[in-house]
């Protein structure tokens, strides 16, 4: 994935999503684009069967025609909240997952992780109504639900509910499965593509009241060709052609497509273009049939390309070419077989000079292959040569027939099958063995997650989800290197064991009723007490004019009871959507302290030291909902100063949140007896609260420098 630094090397303008709102604020409306609809809009590179990338040339007409057609068949609207886990570099993520929803006024959510627990939290927090994903993600979520049901001892009852639900309308299904649906927010639809969707899996989700829609397409078709609809959702098919797209079945059974969405050709590859684009028809390479109602059913790839469960594609020739570089390999044939979960995996049939080299040959090849290409199973061909046609092409159909009657020669490279070894395995090794449906003795501590175990990105996510659920250790998938060994993973689990991950956004203070009560108390009791004990002057409120929230208010922290005068100095209109970051170890040290802070100040807990992830989650959830944040950057109080160094997280939040910073300074001209109980101290103090001019930071700003600028602005007031 490109970083800001690497993208900048291209010497092209770089924009971040977070900065777009600020860049658009106050800017004049851009003129309508004058581009020719038939002009080239983008070139999307996709791997070819030889491993050489091919640039798919898409015009403005190609992309827009597909976006507008999708709006007519997918339930999109201003109330739709889509959770998309697909990369924007993929046309499925770009058009169905981004452009079409934007045209419909829908909201798009991108998760921070694919772990089921994180996805479930995102569903709840963002009130997601539609999931856009590959079928394997739906399977991951289903597995997570099944594990929780099994752990509760209610498997039979759960299955009975499924049986009953088949005969009920969707609203009653959702009511019946409310405990499950409550964990995934308001999810109503899943739109799937990139790999085949199991009808059994789709039926199970429909039984709990979530409709599974299956799409089919290719980068060359911008990308959607056909899709099932709410009113025509025939399981086992990929639906009917979307409006503006025509589908035919050629004499050899190949699916061919015509329409405004069909690409212009491959960049600088006229011969490759001629092979697939003839007379305006794109030859997909897929085999399929159309029924009387024009529902399309697919029957595999014409050229044996493997479509894996996570949506990635593997060309057998690429894997065979890698194996051919090993001198110990006389020949090979790579085919797709099903694992214990019924998902397609890469399987190599090897013709070797020495059959004992098989495991090491596969291990060596996997170090040279991409994670999705890696060999998950292998067999050694028992004869002198592979079965071939008269033109010496390998008969893969014959090989597949042979495999159906054989057991894999090795479940994992270098596997130790002894029962004694299995008994001594670590909890992680036993968990991996159960997840993969193999004997624990076949898993070794030095096995690497990607190259040896064959776990792709989604497999890694499922493993981490199992670890959290069964071993009680939460590990962020971003922290786990694909090249890590199981022994290293076990060490991470041991370190994280017992650490409970808090969920939710501490949202009760955000409720409008709670906020109304809190501000009512501030304006009555609070203002009265402040007037009794302090003379107050507020300076610089004009700096808030024309400013739109959310913003960060960053005051100094120079007296015990400064929170009340600082909050009440901020205009009510700002306070209505403002939350206060309060110290976990002091303000939230007891439940009733936390309750009063939440009620009176819409406060939420933050850690002043140590782990910041939870604090940033809570802070980000409020910024996402349009709430300004009052935060004390010093992190601690120093009566009468001097101003302490600011926590570097201040600048980081301002940059990542793309929010202006309003520096504030509380000047204690005279302490009050209620604030400092000392002989001769007057009962009434004297305070001045100053608002500075807003500071703004670009997406490429340095967090440390930004923090120093905020501190300097506060000190200068």
Which structural class do you get from the secondary structure elements? Answer: alpha/beta
The CATH topology of the largest domain turns out to be Rossmann fold
Main beta sheet strand tally, sense and closure: 7 strands, mixed
Q: What is the count of structural domains?
A: 4
What share of the residues does DSSP label as strand, in percent?
A: 15-25%
* Helix percentage range: 25-40%
Can you characterise this structure?
The chain is of the alpha/beta class. The chain folds into 4 domains: 36-300, 3-Layer(aba) Sandwich (Rossmann fold), CATH 3.40.50.12780; 306-404, GMP Synthetase, Chain A, domain 3 (2-Layer Sandwich), CATH 3.30.300; 419-496, Non-ribosomal Peptide Synthetase Peptidyl Carrier Protein, Chain A, CATH 1.10.1200.10; 508-716, Glycerol-3-phosphate (1)-acyltransferase. The chain is built from 25 helices and 27 strands. The strands form 6 sheets. Strands 4-3-5-6-7-8-9 form a 7-stranded mixed β-sheet, sandwiched between helices. α16 (427-436) crosses α17, α19 (512-533) crosses α22 (591-601) and α24 packs across α25. The chain starts with a helix and ends with a helix. The model is unreliable at 408-423 (pLDDT under 50).
């Amino acid at each position: 994935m490109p970083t800001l630094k690497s993208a900048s090397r291209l010497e092209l303008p770089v924009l971040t999503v977070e900065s777009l709102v600020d860049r658009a604020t106050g800017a004049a409306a851009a003129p309508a684009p004058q581009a020719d609809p038939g002009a080239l809009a983008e070139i999307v590179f996709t791997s070819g069967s030889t491993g050489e990338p091919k640039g798919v040339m898409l015009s403005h007409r190609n992309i827009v025609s597909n976006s507008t057609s999708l709006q007519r068949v997918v339930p999109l609207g201003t109330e739709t909240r889509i959770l998309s886990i697909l990369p924007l570099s993929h046309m499925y993520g770009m058009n169905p997952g981004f452009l079409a929803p934007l045209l419909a006024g829908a909201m798009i959510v991108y998760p921070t992780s694919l772990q089921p627990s994180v996805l479930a939290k995102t569903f709840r927090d963002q009130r997601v109504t539609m999931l856009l994903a590959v079928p394997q993600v739906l399977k991951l979520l289903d597995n997570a639900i099944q594990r929780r049901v099994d752990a509760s001892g209610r498997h039979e009852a759960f299955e009975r509910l499924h049986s009953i639900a088949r005969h009920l309308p969707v609203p009653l299904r959702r009511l019946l499965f409310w405990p499950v649906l409550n964990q995934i927010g308001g999810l109503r639809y899943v739109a799937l593509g990139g790999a085949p969707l199991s009808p059994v899996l789709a039926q199970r989700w429909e039984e709990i009241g979530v409709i599974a829609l299956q799409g089919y397409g290719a980068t060359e078709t911008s990308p959607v060709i056909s899709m099932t609809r709410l009113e025509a959702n025939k399981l086992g098919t990929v639906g009917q052609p979307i409006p503006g797209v025509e589908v035919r079945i050629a004499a050899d059974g190949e699916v061919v497509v015509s329409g405004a969405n069909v690409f212009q050709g491959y960049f600088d590859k006229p011969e490759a273009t001629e092979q697939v684009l003839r007379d305006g028809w794109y030859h997909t390479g897929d085999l399929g049939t159309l029924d009387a109602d024009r529902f399309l059913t697919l029957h595999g790839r014409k050229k044996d390309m493997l479509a894996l469960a996570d949506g990635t594609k593997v060309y057998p020739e690429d894997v065979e070419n890698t194996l051919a570089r090993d001198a110990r390999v006389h020949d090979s044939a790579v085919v797709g077989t099903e694992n214990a979960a019924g998902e397609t995996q890469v399987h190599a049939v090897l013709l070797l000079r020495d059959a004992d080299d098989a495991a090491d040959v596969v291990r060596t090849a996997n170090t040279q292959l991409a994670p999705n290409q890696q060999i998950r199973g292998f067999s050694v061909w028992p004869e002198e040569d592979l079965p071939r046609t008269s033109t010496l092409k390998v008969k893969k159909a014959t090989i597949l027939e042979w495999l159906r009657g054989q057991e894999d020669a090795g479940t994992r490279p270098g596997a130790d099958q002894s029962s004694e070894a299995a008994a001594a395995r670590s909890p992680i090794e036993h968990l991996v063995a159960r997840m993969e449906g193999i004997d624990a003795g076949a898993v070794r501590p030095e096995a690497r997650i990607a190259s040896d175990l064959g776990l792709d990105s989604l497999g890694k996510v499922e493993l981490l989800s199992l670890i959290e659920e069964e071993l009680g250790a939460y590990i962020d998938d971003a922290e786990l290197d694909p090249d890590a060994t199981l022994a290293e993973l076990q060490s991470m689990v041991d370190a994280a064991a017992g650490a409970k991950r808090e969920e939710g956004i501490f949202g009760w203070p955000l409720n409008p009723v709670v906020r109304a009560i809190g501000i009512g108390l501030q304006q009555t009791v609070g203002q009265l007490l402040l007037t009794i004990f302090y003379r107050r002057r507020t300076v610089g409120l004009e700096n808030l004019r024309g400013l739109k929230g959310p913003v960060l208010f960053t005051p100094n922290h120079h007296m015990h009871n400064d929170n009340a005068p600082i909050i009440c100095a901020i205009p009510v209109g700002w306070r209505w959507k403002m939350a206060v970051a309060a110290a976990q170890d002091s303000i939230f040290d007891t439940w009733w302290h936390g309750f009063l802070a939440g009620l009176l100040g819409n406060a939420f807990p933050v850690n002043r030291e140590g782990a910041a992830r939870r604090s940033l989650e809570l802070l980000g959830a409020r910024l996402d909902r349009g709430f300004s944040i009052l935060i004390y950057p010093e992190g601690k109080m120093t009566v009468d100063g001097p101003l302490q160094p600011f926590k570097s997280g201040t600048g980081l939040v301002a940059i990542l949140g793309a929010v202006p910073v309003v520096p504030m300074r509380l000047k204690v001209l005279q302490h009050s007896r209620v604030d400092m109980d000392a002989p001769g101290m007057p009962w009434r103090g004297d305070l001045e609260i100053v608002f500075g001019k807003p500071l703004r930071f670009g997406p490429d700003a340095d967090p440390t420098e930004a923090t120093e600028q905020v501190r300097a602005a506060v000190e200068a007031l």
